[in-house]
Amino acid sequence: MGGAETMLYKLLKHIDKNRFDANVISMMDEGIYGEKIRELGFEVISLNMKQGRPSIKGIKKAKKNIKDTEVIQTWMYHADLFGYMLFKFSKARKLIWGIRRSNLDPNLNKRSTILVAKINSKLSKKVDTVVSCSIKAKEVHKEFGYFDENLLVIPNGFELNQFSPDAEAKPKVSKLIGRKSDIPYIAHVGRWNILKDYQNFIKALNKVNQKGIKFHAILVGTNIDNNNQELMDLVKKYDLINNVSLLGRREDIPVIMSGADVFISSSSGEGFPNVIGEAMACETPCVVTDVGDSAYIVGNTGKVVPSKNSYALSKGIIDLLNLSNKEREHLGSLARQRVIDNFDIHQVTMQYEELYHL
To answer: Distances from the Cα of 32 to the Cαs of 35, 42, 231, 331, 353, in angstroms?
Structure first.
């Protein structure tokens, strides 16, 4: 349910099916999006390999399913390396890689991930195009050793009809969490992962609470629920039990984003975070940490603060909460217009389609 899968789904949804015939191969199982992609009319092939452990059976199955393929496009490090090996034993005429993150700090990534990225950097010169989802990620990978001349930035795109302002969203969210809607709602969407830096976010909320500012925070994402003991311990430690709702993974993200007064991205590392653009498309002003392309996405429509700094994050939140409703609405309107001008899914899809020409 991550950004890469989401962007792949949106690209397939909007690609010109009269010009391009595409299938999807998943190295592991088909996850959340497999059935959704199949419903769009595309074949989904799952290799069912274990994480980080390619199998002979999986390799043979992949080779069989790319027999008539002219373009191989891969999305993340392990798939890039796997796709390179397949390309060498196929009749395909073009190989396109993908970069989806901008943080290669060995302390924040698995050793195997860094190793695969290092191998890929050596092979990148032999790839037709390496698509980075963000400007920052391109810079990081260039410094890491990736071949610069075939690195191309194509940002993630957003479906503006799916993510849009909803005047009834706040009452809906209020009913969902069982709270009155007369206080500001703060939304945060992201899976339980070290790079999302939930500790930074919870500490910042504690500082906002200590200032006597009323709010309720709505946290959404895989493993963001009461069964996550580590997260629950954080919430209790910072005395936020009555200020936070943990909703887990949900399908009604546009409603939650539109119903929030402020959206927060607290990450210590990102590539091109979809959730920021989605919140902006819902006309919700954002406070984001300065990682990946977060600052570039927000522009002058929200607040950008240093990462891993709960004081700065709390100040950014307070600054937006202290604005009048009219001032926040104006920022939200600017935010949606920025998405329209720069990140419309139709514009982004056309950039990918240009790469597929032989």
So the answer is: 7, 15, 24, 33, 25
Q: What's the confidence (pLDDT) of residue 1?
A: 64
Structure tokens at 295: 């600052």
Strands of 262-265's sheet in order across: 244-246, 216-220, 185-189, 262-265, 286-289, 303-305
* Torsion over CA: 88, 90, 92, 93 (sign): positive
CATH 3.40.50.2000 domain range(s) in the chain: 3-157+344-355, 169-342
As a whole number of angstroms, the distance between CA 340 and CA 88 comes to 40
Please list the rounded mean pLDDT of every run of 10 residues in the chain (358 residues).
85 96 95 94 95 88 94 96 95 96 82 94 98 92 96 95 95 95 96 94 98 97 96 98 96 96 94 92 98 94 98 98 96 98 96 96
Q: What is the pLDDT of residue 173?
A: 97
85's CB contacts (< 8 A; 6+ apart) are 59
The answer as to CATH 3.40.50.2000 being correct for domain 3-157+344-355 is yes
Distances (CA, A) of 75 to 28, 159, 171, 176, 328: 14, 20, 38, 35, 36
pLDDT, residue 197, reads: 96
pTM here is 0.80
How many Å apart are CA 9 and CA 162, to the nearest integer?
14
Q: In whole angstroms, give the CA distance from residue 2 to residue 271.
A: 12
Domain 169-342 in CATH 3.40.50.2000? The answer is yes
For residue 227, give every residue at least 6 positions away whose Cβ sits within 8 Å of its Cβ, in sequence order, or none. none
What does each C-alpha distance from 258 to 59, 152, 187, 329 come to in angstroms? 44, 32, 9, 11
Helical (H) or strand (E) element with 129: strand 129-132
